[in-house]
Amino acid sequence: MKRRDFVKNAALTALGASLIGPLEAFADERVTHLDSDDVSPRAALADEFKLHFLAVGDWGRNGEYDQAEVAKQMGQWATTHPNDFVISVGDNFYPKGIISEMDPQIHYSFENIYTAHSLQCDWYPVLGNHDYLTDPDAQIRYSKVSRRWNMPARYYSKEVSLGKDKGSALLVMIDTDPMLHEHLKDYVSTQMAWLNKTLKEASADVKWKIVIGHHPYYTVGPRINNFDTLTVRKILPQIFEEHKVDAYLSGHDHSLQHLKPEGFTHQFISGAGSELTPVTAGIPYSKFQASEHGFMAFSVNANKFNVKAINQVGKVIYETELSK
């Protein structure tokens, strides 16, 4: 060994020995296991609710009709409040859906609009009537392309934990447009059998049953007595009542609404993601209605179901809370 190598190695050995003592002083028998979320500043946003999600619908208009402004406020809300995912209640791409999973409309109306880092979370969409005008299954295939777009089928379900020993929330995404078409009655029958089975066989841990579809079965928008509304009303309320569905989320009418018709289920319409349609005040089953651009934020724990309607400038214009 050359002399200079011997001197260098000896010096490093001495240095290492001199550090052992101080380093041992810092050592501790406890071992921590921290995920990225544990050390993120977002961890400080935690509140009494285990589950948080946003809901927006009827949005896909290339950023126009205040779509971009609503998207900006969604991003700001999800930056300053806890949020786990986003639900889209349909009419994701105007005017005629998309023709393939590579359709440029996906970028014009989705990827290049909902750009906030806080919105790079999972999105769980359902199909609307406009999505059916070309190839609705293209949106299912897009789930294989996009990291955040999660649409495994035309109808599907997802169970989300509300914390250890606190139960769960069951989210059931349904496909409502076929209900309006007589030639698709067999498909609708198959789907309703699945919906009945999914709700009936929900685990004992499920505290909240939440169904998401595009068409409302009550509304105070332009479709109060519309064929769409009346047809869906013949199908869904009976199932919801039988299985004690807590909330039904929809869009189709381009407004923000909270409705409580007769029966067990509360209905929330969050279809104000871009173009607006008017609402009618004074209808008995309406607890809230606003023809304002915006979205809804949901917070859920084992005993509470909190809902906020937020407009395009970030103002909470309505809040309610269901309890059990």
Quick description:
The chain has 324 residues and is of the alpha/beta class. It has helices at residues 3-26, 36-39, 67-80, 105-111, 137-141, 185-200, 227-233, 236-242; strands at residues 51-56, 85-88, 122-125, 156-161, 168-173, 206-212, 247-250, 256-259, 266-270, 286-290, 294-300, 304-311, 316-323. It has a seven-stranded mixed beta sheet, with helices on one face. It has a six-stranded mixed beta sheet with strand order 3-2-1-11-12-13, covered by helices on one side.
Question: Could you explain the architecture of this structure?
Answer:
- This protein is of the alpha/beta class.
- Helices cover 26% and strands 23% of the residues.
- It has eight helices and 13 strands.
- A seven-stranded mixed sheet has the order 4-5-6-7-9-8-10, covered by helices on one side. Strands 3-2-1-11-12-13 form a six-stranded mixed sheet, covered by helices on one side.
- Residues 10-20 have low confidence and may be disordered.
